[in-house]
């Protein structure tokens, strides 16, 4: 079957499962996970491609666990709770990533996270061996928040010709790479 989400907000208070041959159409709206613990699961393409989310938010102060890859055509926002992903998964976020104070984002080992605009971490980011690729193509983009110590990146890459400003100090555990674009750092900044 086919699920066409409302163009405004769809609030989910349980698990999200997409299996089989059905389709999910985001319709430009937002999906808000407001209670849990919640598992987001599906086939390898169940939350990607034509089945991707538009804006996805986690607001219920619980644990939210992805079991596979997922894409967001808009923003990926954690305002309350803990979000975890499995190892070797991929998350394509066309818009921004935001993790609020008191929240936790824990990607699995070797997970790839691709962000099209801004990265803001004011909570806990457990990078493990993940790779964050900032792949926006416009100027005026930012990487901000708590980005050092235990909230450091493992691998951080900038690509696709965008222009980013690192608003705060940034620690990178393994590699910091700029393949295209410009990255401005704060004064007296050491990576």
Write the layout of secondary structure elements.
Blueprint: E1 2-4, E2 9-12, E3 16-18, E4 23-25, E5 30-33, E6 38-42, E7 55-58, E8 62-66, E9 70-72, E10 76-78, E11 81-84, E12 90-93, E13 97-99, E14 104-106, E15 112-115, E16 119-121, E17 124-125, E18 131-134, E19 141-145, E20 153-158, E21 163-166, E22 172-178, E23 182-184
Parallel strand pairs: 1-4, 2-5, 3-6, 5-7, 6-8, 7-10, 8-11, 9-12, 10-13, 11-14, 12-15, 13-16, 14-17, 15-18, 16-19, 18-20, 19-21, 20-22, 21-23
Write out the strand line-up for the largest beta sheet, numbering strands in chain order. Answer: 2-5-7-10-13-16-19-21-23
Average pLDDT, rounded to a whole number, is 94
How much strand content do the residues show? over 45%
How many helices in DSSP terms? 0
- Assembly state: single chain
CA distance, first residue to last residue = 50 Å
Low confidence ranges = none
Which sheet architecture does the biggest sheet show?
9 strands, parallel
Strand tally, please?
23
As a whole number of angstroms, the C-alpha radius of gyration is 16 Å
Helix content: under 10%
Question: SS-based structural class?
Answer: mainly beta
Q: Describe the global form.
A: globular
Secondary-structure element series: EEEEEEEEEEEEEEEEEEEEEEE
